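Q: What structure does this chain adopt?
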Amino acid sequence: MMWDGAAVNVCESESGVMDPSDATPIWHQPVMTAEVLSYLRPSSRAVIVDGTVGTAGHSMTIAPRLLPDGLLICLDRDHGALTLARQRLTEFQPHVTFIHENYRQLPAVLRQLGRECVDGILLDLGMSTFQVDTPERGFSFLHEGPLDMRMDQGQGTTAETLVNTLPADDLAQMLEILGEERFARRIAQRMVQERRIHPLTTTTQLARLIVQAVPAGARHGRLHPATRTFQALRMAVNDELGALEAFLAALPSLLAPQGRAVVITFHSLEDRMVKRAFVQGKERGEWTVLTKKCVRPSDEECQRNPRARSAKLRAVERA
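A:
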């Protein structure tokens, strides 16, 4: 078997993995750091938003460039990741503000902070290893854990809820659209059959079911057969496309004149949404598109960090 443990959209741009031998995080490089800095252009008086701060991979390179008079506003829906980000960025206080919130709520966040707009916004939509490698979060089929998959564990719906309650047709549609899973209907039908006997409650239980559901010839390859299903469930649980759509609709009003937005995606649907929104905004005269084609990581970076290989960066500057 040649299964690649990284899911299609689990190509994390930055990661903090907890070494089981101690409590010290092992920090990995964020994706396309130089490119982010080049397009975002943080400066000593700028106000920059990192809307998906994670464990501060990109923010650690942005924060020093905002001194002595700038401000970095860090958002994340994952409370655990935000706690780690706060620890890493302690030396840059009071020039960093941390807010436990989904980036789709950025307009409301800025209003609460008394700001109409900002000079730059970064979104990195990749998963972090901090989330994937925490078994109790339920993101990975490589670890035994509950079918949770919530980035914000304060929200209600979990992956367990979806796989045990959605009709087969709805499950299949979700897997087809969000996971681009060609065996979506077979997997959905198998889920419904299995849950009639006993509920689907764990990651490994679901992964075994998926392996059994797909044709024998599809069980051996670069990607584990459960990869796309887990991706689809995670995106559905967290309404990831809905959050991106809401953000893109609000983006023109969030940027100051000559302010810049940089978005890194890891999923074809996300990239198409960003590309379309940027083109439409250009046609309306709202901004200049700085990236005629998406920017990809270098071969050297992909060799150093294979999970960066599906990253795509696009950027705009407000008119």
